Amino acid sequence: MDQEYIKAKLRELPHQPGSYQMKDKNGTIIYVGKAKDLHNRVNSYFVGSHNFKTRKLVSNIEDFDFIVTASEKEALVLEINLIKKNRPKYNIQFMDDSSYPYIKLTKEEYPRLMTARDLRKDRRAAYFGPFPDAGAAATTLKLLQSLYPFRRCVHMQDKVCLYYHMNQCLGPCQFHIEPSVYEEMSEKVTKFMNGDTKEIEKELTERMMKCAERMEFEKAQEYKDLLDSIRNVVGEKQNIEKNNQGDMDVFTWYTDKGYLSIAGLLVRRGVILNKEYRVRPLYGDAEEEFLSFLVQYYQDHPGTKEVVVPQELDITDLASVIGIPVFQPQKGYRQRLVDMAKGNAKTQLDLKFKVVERQDDMTEQAVQHLNSLAGRPMNRVELFDNSHISGAFTVASCVVYEDGQPDRKSYRLYKLHTGNSDVDSMKEVIYRRYFRLLKDEGRMPDGILVDGGWTQIEAAKEILSSLGLQDQINIMGLVKNDKHTTNALMNSEGEVLELDKNDSLFFLLTRMQDEVHRVAITYHRKLRSKAQTKSVLDEVEGIGPKRKRMLLREFGSFTNLKNAGEEEIQKYVPDEVAHAVYEALHQDQEIKKETPEE
Questions:
Q1: Does the first or last residue of the chain, that is N or C, have fewer Cβ atoms within 10 Å of its Cβ?
Q2: Spatial CB neighbours of 412, under 8 Å, sequence gap ≥ 6
Q3: Within a 10 A sphere around the Cβ of 408, how many other Cβ atoms?
Q4: Res 275: pLDDT
C-alpha cells in the first residue's frame, strides 16, 4: 500500500453520502460499503485499532474508489447492486445453500402446481409458504392436486395421460379449456393457502353425504379422507408457537470476536418457522452489514406483511428500499419474537460460530504454511484434473482457490483433444487456460498445484515457459503415496516437502484435491450421459423432437423402430422422411459388414 497516496486521497473525500469500493493490488474490488459521510467512514478504516478481521481487509487494500449519492437511501441501493455485480470477497454472502420449500402456482396459459425452493427462477409465479420441511410441502401439494386438476406434465403432450383419467388434470393437451376455469381454480388455491377452507370443506361434505345416500361408500370415504387431510394441513402446528398476529419476518443479529451471526423467525398464519443463517467473518460495521442482508434477502425472496427488527437499528429509508413496512417494537408479542431471535443468534448458533471460527483460523494457518513452503505468495492457486474412459470423453477441470476458499465463479471446464496420456492432457489444458488469460488480460494465479510428481511439474513448466509465464506463476506438485493419497508437496525444483497429517495445510490440500476431482468427474459423466441418450434420429432431416417422441411412442422402443420396415414407418411420417429414417437406422449395419472385427 502506498501510504502517501492513500492519505492524499483520504483528505479529498467529501462529507456526503455514497458508496465506497476497496481494491486490492490487482484492481479487483474486494469490499463494498455505504456511508452517510464518506470522509468519516472511509478514514475510519485507516486510523485507530481494529479487530483481526478488519486488519486483514485493510492489509489487502491498495486503492479505493467512491461514488457520491444524493441520499443514504441511494447509497444503500447502490451498495447492494455493486455487491451483486462484483461479489467482493470480504462482503458477507449471507444466505446458506438450504432454503424452505414453497408451493408454486405458475402463471402459464395452463397453470401448474408444484413445490419450489428457488424463487428467483420464475418471479411471475405465485408462491405459498414457506413450509418447515419438504414433507409438509409435499402433503399440502398432494392435497391441492387432488382438489384442483391443474396441468401435471412439464411439456404439453399430444394426448391426455393417466392424470386425466384419474380426474387430476383437465387435459388441455387435447381439449379446449376456458381460461376462466383456471382463473377460478387459482383463486380457490389462494384462498385455501390463506387459511380460508370453509367453502371447499362445505362442498366436500355435501359430496360425501350424497355418495353415502347413494351407498357409494368407497367414493364417500375418498371425500372423508380429503376432509381429514384439509383439517390436518390447516390445523397443524408446524413449529414452536402459534399466535393470531398474521404474517411477519423477524430478524436480528449478534456479533462477537469479529464474527456476525444473523437469525430470523418467519411467521406465516401465526406459525413460527425457525431459520438459521450462516455465521460470517465481519469486516465492516455490523449494522451496515445487517441492513445489507435485509435488502439482499428481499430481492431474492417473496415479501411478507411486515418486517420486525431490533430498536437499536437505524432503519431510515429501509422500508422504502425493500417495499415492506418495518417495525421496531418495544413490548408485546413482536418484542418477544425479537428476544427469541436474539437468543437464537446467541445460543443456537454458538456451536456453529465456534466451528466456523476454528475453520477460518485453520484455513488462514494453512495458507500461511503453503506460502512459507513455496517461499513466495500462494494466496491464489489453481488446480487441474482430467477424466476419461480409455481415452474417450477426455475432459479437464480447473478449480480456483483464493485464501483457502473456493472461487467457484472462476472454475473452468475443458473438452480435451489430446487424450493419449495424463501428461499430454496436462499440457493441453494448461496451455489453453493461460493462453486465454493472456489474451483476455485476465487475472493470473500466484501458483499452480498439479496432481502428480516431477513429470507433471515438468510438463507444466514447459508450457508456462512457452507462454513467458515461468517467473510469474509458481508450480508445485501434490505427491501421493502407494495408497494414492496425498502425503507431500514437491516444489518446482523437485524437492519433496513432507506434510504432517495433523497439519491444517494437509486438510486444505485434501479438500482442494477432492474438489477438482469432483468437478472433473461430474463434467465427464454429464458428457457421457448426453452422448448415450443421443439418438441417431437426431441427425435425420425432418425429424424434430415432436416426431421423435411420436415414433418412439408408436413403436414402443428404439429397437422396434429399427426392426420396422420402411412401409410401416410411412404410416406416421411423410414418405421421404420415412426413407431417411430407415436409411439412418440401418447405415451402421452396413458399416459393420464392411469393417471386420479383429
A1: C
A2: 397, 398, 433
A3: 10
A4: 67
Task: Give the whole-angstrom CA distance, residue 124 versus residue 137.
Answer: 20
The strand order across the sheet containing 63-68 reads: 29-35, 18-23, 63-68
Percent with pLDDT over 90 in the chain: 15
CA quadruple 169, 170, 176, 179: dihedral sign: negative
**Which phi and psi angles does 64 have, rounded to 5°?**
-150, 155
SS3 275: strand
Three-state secondary-structure class, residue 445: coil
C-alpha cell at 23: 481494491
C-alpha dist (Å) from residue 286 to 21, 81, 279, 283, 290: 17, 19, 12, 9, 6
Distance CA 246, CA 327 (A): 14
Is the pTM higher than 0.70? The answer reads no
Q: How many CB atoms lie within 10 A of CB 159?
A: 9
Cross-strand pairs, 387 = 395
545: nearest Cα among 173, 553, 563, 569: 553
Please report the sign of the dihedral spanned by the C-alpha atoms of residue 75, residue 81, residue 85, residue 86.
positive
Beta bridge partners of 266: 249, 273
Task: State how far the Cα of 462 lies from the Cα of 434, in Å rounded to an integer.
Answer: 13
Query: How does DSSP assign 523-585, residue by residue?
Result: HHHHHHHHHHH--GGGGSTT--HHHHHHHHHHHSSHHHHHHS-HHHHTTTS-HHHHHHHHHHH
Among 339, 264, 334, which residue's Cα sits nearest to residue 100? 264
C-alpha cell at 244: 393470531
Distance from C-alpha of 340 to C-alpha of 267, rounded to nearest angstrom:
13
Backbone angles phi, psi at 339, to 5 degrees: -60, -40
Residue 2, classified by CB atoms within 10 Å of its CB into exposed (0-12), middle (13-18) or buried (19+), is exposed
pLDDT of residue 207: 83
Report cis status (omega within 30 of 0) of the bond before 406: no
The angle subtended at Cα 471 by Cα 467 and Cα 476, nearest 5°, is: 95
Radius of gyration in angstroms for the set of CA atoms belonging to the chain, rounded to a whole number: 31
Region of residue 401 (left: phi > 0; alpha: psi -120 to 50; beta: else):
beta
Under a CB-based contact definition with an 8 Å cutoff, are residues 520 and 395 in contact? yes
Rounded to the nearest 5 percent, the helix, strand and coil shares of the chain are 45, 20, 35
Yes or no: say if 13 and 66 are a contact pair by the CB < 8 Å rule.
yes
Helices (H), 196-285: 198-213, 217-235
Task: Tally Cβ neighbours within 10 Å of residue 27.
Answer: 10
Please report which helix (H) or strand (E) contains residue 279, including its range: none
For 160, the grid coordinates are 391426455
Low-confidence ranges of the chain (pLDDT < 50): 95-97, 236-244, 588-598
- Alpha-carbon distance of 537 to 535, in angstroms, equals 5
- Looking at residue 592, what is its pLDDT? 38
Distance CA 186, CA 125 (A): 11
Distance of CA 346 to the CA centre of its chain: 27
Question: Which residues, 6+ apart, have CB-to-CB distance to 210 below 8 Å?
Answer: none
Residue bearing cell 410401416: 568
The set of long-range contacts for 554-560, using a CB threshold of 8 Å and a minimum separation of 24, is: none
> Which residues make beta-bridge pairs with 413?
397
- Encode 414-445: b = buried (16+ Cβ within 10 Å), e = exposed: bebeebeebbbbbbbbbbbbbeebeeeeeeeb
Helices 454-466 + 422-440 axis angle, to 10: 30
Q: How far apart are CA 111 and CA 465, in angstroms?
A: 59
